Amino acid sequence: MPTLGKNKKARFDYEILDTLEAGLVLTGQEVKSLRTGNIRMAGSYVTFHKNTPQLTNLHIPKYKYASNIADYDPERSRAILLKKKEIAYLRGKSQEKGLTIIPLSVYTKGRKIKMEIGIARGKKQFDKRQTIKKREQDREDRRMFKGGL
Description:
The chain is of the alpha+beta class. It has one domain: Small Protein B, Chain: A (Beta Barrel). Helices cover about 30% and strands about 35% of the residues. The chain contains four helices and seven strands; from the N terminus they run E-H-E-H-E-E-E-H-E-E-H. It has helices at about 10-15, 30-35, 85-95, 125-149; strands spanning about 5, 15-25, 45-50, 50-55, 80, 100-110, 110-120. The protein has a seven-stranded antiparallel β-sheet with strand order 1-6-7-2-5-4-3. The protein starts with a strand and ends with a helix.
């Protein structure tokens, strides 16, 4: 399962409550562009349009060797493939106050391209400071164990 892209800021800006695996509906040149590692996930989120989940603000640039497609939009809304129960679950969670659905990573599973999406609650500023403090403390502990032993 090689990872094609990660949303690095997601785990820092949000508290992830639950994760799901979903498929993506992509065009051929988007798949080729993804496989070369071209993806920007910062600021993307999942919305619902007529009971179908759509991924909004996911930036997949045009494949550099593709023919010139004049109407290609790199940030178009892309459909997400889920089971009916998962869609109902996500719709209910998206309507709860303070929760949002964000993509965490894009990876391949066999020949298919999958996405890990997470139900997230935004962190407050003091939570982010605690995360930084804990990370620094862990780094110091590793240095002490490595140098001391």
